[in-house]
Structure formats: structure tokens, C-alpha cells
């Protein structure tokens, strides 16, 4: 029993140190990136203002660590801010949602809202996420973690699904590099819960490497076409 208590104590010390240093790195890296990317940030703002007009930034209410809501920033990529065309969860409330958000659930957006020319370019190279560095600096998000959830969906999480809210959401994460998006809610939850259970320095480095690799691959493909 004594050995078991020591093991648990060692684990909690390790995991607390991990989250402490992760937050410290989030602050250092996001501040550095924001300074380095500030010229690009201003160029994108100018292009959006001249070609697509206001608003330049898109603001969305999302759910973060411990079910706390926050405003997530990104560059506007659509003709008007993206809106979900049906109630979340679907109304009237279906019995299939009583035990949590169904694995087959898929977000349906307004088909009349289209991506702008600049928005397509920003999304292709993930540059629309640059303003999220502000969220990282504020402590709403981390560089790496589960994708920030929509409040109306998180309200219907069961206990199993709600475990993904134990850590800060990220600009990129384990689900994202494995291709799990809102088109496959069950798969996204599975990957996110794997991350919350096994998060570590090595896993974060792996996710960051894969994310950068995907961006570089997209740039190379664009140059070759």
C-alpha cells in the first residue's frame, strides 16, 4: 500500500510538472511566434480589409479546460461568419442524445456561406489560425491539445466524452494530425481522450512535428502545381 501511495504521489508530481512546463513553453513560443509573424499578420489584415472588407477577425464562443467558455479568434475565411444552420443539439431533442453526443453526429453549415478567395488561401496553409496565438497567450488554449468544442455540443457530453475537457484545447492536436474532424465526432473523441490520458513531452513533439510536416507538404504541393 505504501508503494502504491508513493507511485501515485510520483505520478501527480510528474504530471503537474508537465503541465507547468507546457504552459511556460506555450507562453514563450506563442509570444515569439506572434512577434515573428506580426508582419504577416498585418499583411493578412490589410488584404482582408481591402478585398473582403470587415470583419477581419472571426470570433467564436468555444469550450476549453474544465468546461470554461472563451472567445476563440481566427481570421475570417467566409463571406460572412460561419453559422450552424440547425440547433445544436438537433431540435426537437432526439432520444439518441440522452447518453451523450452520438458518434455519427456531424456539423452542418449554411450552404449559402462560401469561402472567400483570401479565406481559401488562409485555410490551405492554416494561416487563419494565427490569431489563436492570442488565445494561447491568454491561457484559453495551448499550442497542442484537443480541438476547442462548440458549447451547445459540449453541454450534451456524457462523462466519458467530457474527459476531453480536462486539458486546454489546442491549435493542433492528436485528433487533427490523424484526420479526425467534426465530420466524425466519435473518432475525434477517441483520439482526444487518448491524448488526455497519455499526454507527454514526446507526444507533444510528435504532434508538432506531424503538424508542421503537413503544412510543408501543402506548400510543396502548391509549388509543384
Q: What features would you describe in this structure?
A:
- This protein has 225 residues and is mainly alpha-helical.
- The chain contains nine helices and four strands; from the N terminus they run ααββααβααβααα.
- The chain has helices spanning 2-36, 38-51, 117-124, 132-138, 151-154, 159-162, 174-177, 185-198, 201-224, and strands spanning 57-63, 69-75, 142-144, 170-172.
- It has a two-stranded antiparallel ribbon.
- A hairpin with a 5-residue loop joins strand 1 (57-63) and strand 2.
- Helix 1 (2-36) packs across helix 2 (38-51) and helix 1 crosses helix 4 (132-138).
- The chain is globular and about 55 Å long.
- The protein starts with a helix and ends with a helix.
- The model has no long low-confidence stretch (mean pLDDT 86).
Question: How many β strands by DSSP?
Answer: 4
Spatial order of the strands in the main sheet? 1-2
Number of helices: 9
The SSE string, one letter per element, is HHEEHHEHHEHHH
Overall 3D geometry? globular
Mean pLDDT: 86
Percent range for β-strand residues: 5-15%
The Rg value, from CA coordinates, equals 19 Å
The amount of helix comes to 40-55%
Unreliable runs: none
List keywords for this structure.
225 residues, mainly alpha, single chain, 4 strands, globular, two-stranded antiparallel sheet, 9 helices, two-stranded parallel sheet
At a glance:
With 225 residues, the chain is mostly helical.
